[in-house]
Design goal:
The complex is a heterodimer of chains A (205) and B (392). By secondary structure, chain A is an alpha+beta fold. Chain A is built from six helices and seven strands; from the N terminus they run αβαββαβαβαβαβ. Chain B contains two helices and 31 strands. Helix content of chain B is 7%, strand content 49%. With 392 residues, chain B is mainly beta. Classes of the chains: A alpha+beta (205), B mainly beta (392). Chains A and B meet through strand 1, strand 2, strand 3, helix 3 and helix 5 of A and strand 8, strand 9, strand 10, strand 13 and strand 14 of B. Strand 3 of chain A pairs antiparallel with strand 10 of chain B.
Amino acid sequence: MKKAVLLLCVLFFVASCAMQKVPTQPPQTEKSKIEQTMSQQEEKKEKKQPETQVSSIVSHQEQKEEPKKVKVEEVSPTMIAKAQTTMTDETKEQSVLSKMIHFDFDRYDIKKEAQEVLKEIAEYLKANPEVRIIIEGHCDERGSREYNLGLGMRRAQSAKKYLVDLGIDENRIETISYGKDKPLIDEHNEEAWAKNRRCEFKRIA
Amino acid sequence: MKKITLLVFYFLFFASKAVSLTIEISNPNLRPFKVYVENKNVKDEVIINNLVNYLAMMPNILIVDDIDNADYALNYVKKGNIINLNLKYLKTAESINFEIKKGLNDEHEASLKLADMVFENITQSKGIFSSQVVFSMNWHGVRQIFITDIFGKKIRKITENITASVAPKLSPKGDYVVYTRYFKSGGTSLRLINLKNLDDMPVFSSKGLNVAGSFTEDGKKFFFVSYDGTISKLISYNLTNSEMEVLYTSRSRIATPVVTYNKDTIAFVSDELGGPQIFLLNLKNKSIKRITYKHNYATSPSFAPPGTHFVYVALVNGVNKVFASSIDGNDFTLLTPIDKSFEDPHWSKNERFVFALSSDKNSSSLYLIDISTLRFVKLFTLPAKIGYLYIN
């Protein structure tokens, strides 16, 4: 009888470990979210998390997310047409950071001409150690928006890795992808697609 | 002979009457149902006019002028504040009545609900008029999330974020929207809007991308992918207790995790083998199985409710084309045999139609495609390039 109980306990323990469920706090307050992140980061230092745990990817500093109320606004087609202004791009750079690198279709490897641009950017970053940048990955219009988000992210990561290999501190470089949401040229031809498959470099304010 | 029995139902704020009815349906999927509207020229009833217009837009319903050529007859009688709509199956003369009270707050919504009920009685399949559509669109320079119905009426903006908001997904009952919000300095946050109490709650944020796929059929969970540019994690989020569970981890890019209507599997897009293809993940043993082989570039899966077929987008000569396929790949059809790109295909609730979006430089149109006849119906056009469209 005792053996059976012991066996059940062991089975229960093993089963709970195998579930890999990571209970997280309900998304209540900014404070609780930050605390959760910080404690997870500390925990991470102590023991290496298995790759499958959610907490290992909750490590972003920017957790200024708060609950809020939705303000529903009814809109008409006329209002929609008026709202189609150019996408906001408040961080337009005039320096070396205004240069872009380009990619082949569905690829994210750094081409030879892109290497030259990245070397210039690395030199600029070395000369301006206070500057932090964000690399935006972009894609052409072909394929689905969600798949292209991932592709843009890979492109941005490739560019980041190249800069890090050139000696830039990885903490100075953030990456993001806009997929095909922000085309440079809104046309449907090879020339436009080639220009839209790119990474842009922007200074973080 | 197919029999149905209709029970008493409720119509908005009051009870409507229905009678027990037996209808014979012949060839339900192969020809349009012909409906004769006896007093369709009477334009004074918004709800009735909307109903007739909505039914006329359905590829499997044909409004005919000759009652001798019709399967059904629709007519209505106004008695004071009440409209009595009668749908008669002409072969047996059996009929059903719908009682509608005038002066409702939202006549458009009432029309959609009525259209669903009439459509369901005629076609013996689920109505699609109450489906909701969410999408992301540029709004004065920043992408925001919008919700509307399948006719593009009553469009509502439901986010007001200073950074881009994209990839919204609706719960099956239309009570929740999960979406992705960008951070200015990299990283994204997954947020959940409760459309009943209008709470917009943060769910999960990290560096990289966090993009939701679809909710489960019961609406209690949704799936999302967290991708940092190196590792993709396919995660489920439980709305009841906020628990997250990593279902699959990969060094490939993963996108669009969606339900397959088989509780043991979900589908997703991955570049595991080079270009994007669609895979099934077995939730029990975590094995994956590729289900698209005919194209080098296959994305955006959406499954038909029984789970036997799915639609997806394949890139063919630079054009996004929508294909329907059985899970085993044997039953395979091109749904968009025209030189126009389509994206975001979604199978309708009644398995009969597929919704798909097509955009030009300054406008986007939502189409309904009849699977059986490949007839296209344009449901609405908006003067903007919209994206990330999702329909529940």
